[in-house]
Amino acid sequence: xxxxxRDPDTRVEILDxxxxxxxxxxxxxxxxxxxxxxxxxxxxxxxxxxxxVSLQRQGRMGxxxxxxxxxxxxxxxxxxxxxxxxxxxxxxEHAAVYGKDVGLAETLQYWMGDERxxxxxxxxxxxxxxxxxxxxxxxxxxxxxxxxKDEDRVFMCYFGDGATSxxxxxxxxxxxxxxxxxxxxxxxxxxxAISVPRERQTASQTIAQKATAYGFDGVQVDGMDPLAVYKVxxxxxxxxxxxxxxxxxxxxxxxxxxxxxxxxxxDDPSVYRDDEEVEQWKDRDxxxxxxxxxxxxGILDDERIETITDEIEDEVADAIDAxxxxxRPDPAGIFQHVFDQQPARIAEQQAAFERLRxxxxxxxxxx
Amino acid sequence: xxxxxxxxxxxxxxxxxVRDGLYxxxxxxxxxxxxxxxxxxxxGVFRATEGLYDEFGTDRVIDTPLAESGIVGTAIGxxxxxxxxxxxxxxxxxxxxxxxxxxxxxxxxxxxSRGRFTCPMVVRAPxxxxxxxxxxxxxxxxxxxxxxxxxxxxxxxxxxDAKGLLAASIRDPDPVVFLEPKLIYRAFRGxxxxxxxxxxxxxxxxxxxxxxxxxxxxxxMAQQTVEAADQLAGEIDVEVVxxxxxxxxxxxxxVDSFKKTGxxxxxxxxxxxxxxxxxxxxxxxEEALLYQEAPIKRITGFDTPFPLYALEDxxxxxxxxxxxxxxxxxxx
Lengths: 367, 332
Fold this sequence. Notes:
The structure holds 2 protein chains of 2 kinds.
Chain A: E1 11-12, H1 32-57, H2 71-78, E2 86-88, H3 94-98, H4 104-111, H5 135-148, E3 155-160, H6 167-179, E4 183-189, E5 192-193, E6 196-197, H7 198-201, H8 211-214, E7 217-222, H9 226-241, E8 251-256, H10 275-282, H11 286-296, H12 302-325, H13 344-366
Helix pairs in contact in A: 1-2, 1-11, 1-12, 2-9, 4-12, 5-6
Chain B: E1 9-12, H1 14-28, E2 32-36, H2 52-56, E3 61-63, H3 68-80, E4 84-88, H4 99-106, H5 109-112, E5 122-127, H6 142-146, E6 152-154, H7 159-171, E7 176-181, E8 190-193, E9 205-208, E10 213-217, H8 220-232, E11 238-242, E12 245-247, H9 251-261, E13 264-271, H10 276-288, E14 297-301, H11 312-315, H12 319-331
Parallel strand pairs in B: 2-3, 2-4, 5-7, 6-7, 10-11, 10-13, 13-14
Antiparallel strand pairs in B: 1-8, 6-12, 9-11
């Protein structure tokens, strides 16, 4: 049975806080290898996050938006996509885009201030959107174009709870409803838009219920339960891919979760929220829950987990080495990719810039 | 009004002076309210509203939903109904959802209601590059707003001006876009009178007197330009004029300085094409052509999107580029 045709106020849940299957819940049909891979990617995401924050603290990287606590939502949803389905991320989906072969080194490169990290050439991923909610209409447009081309791809757009307050959220979802696009709007409701709590973003009881106004399904899911996230996303993907179904193709998924860390490394959450609240949510840690479930099922044991731990530490260390050993971008890159053909005025400015560098040397210019 | 020697002062950074200015105006006028994303409990992402929430309460220091058009649009309604809202846009790069509200409505409501409704609102936004910030956090797009009739555009470059200009903006009966150069939010401290005071809008300040060439600038570039001018001392006597208000421009100050030197450069970090350097140059041509001894040099950002931070220091004018430009004008 689809998880989607239900009251948007009831939350889809499969694992409880101790990783046990809840009464009456059905575990989605995933083979052991895929379950272990989901676990590995969540662990990788967590470790990457911790290392990235520490790189920023050491002055080796600029501002970084951590995502600890949100791995279950990202990995669970990304695994429900087909290889050629698209992801249109915000700026916090490091684990979700990893599922589209966006390497950790590329992600680091972008946050190290190098535009080339945003290229992700050949991968079905749109550049990270730093302004809030602006990617939502783009996602609808991508899906709409694909539909007009008679493809059967699905377009997964991620955004946060704060984004649902922006006009672009309304316009993007409204168009998706009107033009019945193969879209999934995945709201990572992590309870806080920097310092503003979810209750302050909307007087709606849930974010999922907003879908009713756009004429398509909305569903709320435990976003810290990767199996429940996988299940609802899978149902949404199937519906989006089917042009002949009865139900409208778009779906709004509200994944209820928590950001364990700061909004970004420039933020201090102790100013606006209590440690007690953070600790309560940490009891629902998606990694612990999946790990307990997989141990209980005999799919993971200490030895396997130790191997995974070693592997992810190596993978993250290698990514950091790769990002830091990549040559810094050529300053001439400022003038590239502004237009297809460089206008004469920009060419003149570039030439003047190169003369300035010749006269003074980079050291003097950057001091 | 300038502070005399007996005035009590505090040693503040520019962002502390903004906060101090907000505090002073809220304290003296109950109609002044602050609103925006994270301005309340969090005290602003740059701490520009720190402590105001505890002092003035949730009705006057308002954490809003994350919606720039909503923030400015509702502020226009509040302003039309007798309040004096000071909405904050967290970074200038995020102001565009509110662009329609600012240019089509805040700027026009006086004209289109034939003076019945007004918009005494100050939209504050940190702007400019140089702090290794993420994408869309470093733009300088003051020209968009200067181009719009009915808006005032103000940019402080010292702590003392930040407080005085903000107070004048809040007390002004028309809408003001108040752009805060975040590169120098905490770069240095200065004496700031403790009591509220205003620094008049529309008046430039000569930061450094000189006789060979006039350099017009504002915001974070004022500091870079004074530094370049100091380095040129002995070789070229540079006058640095900080415009402080970009709309309405202080034509008299621009023309007076130019008539003295006969040579000029303009320094801004915004892109060159359509930037204010063009407007300043044209003003000089209209008002003082016969005094002109050399082409006027524009020392600006490039006509490219602002690069991510690995390259931003190449993008921003700095003393070497500014000195070269000044020499070109003087050696013509």
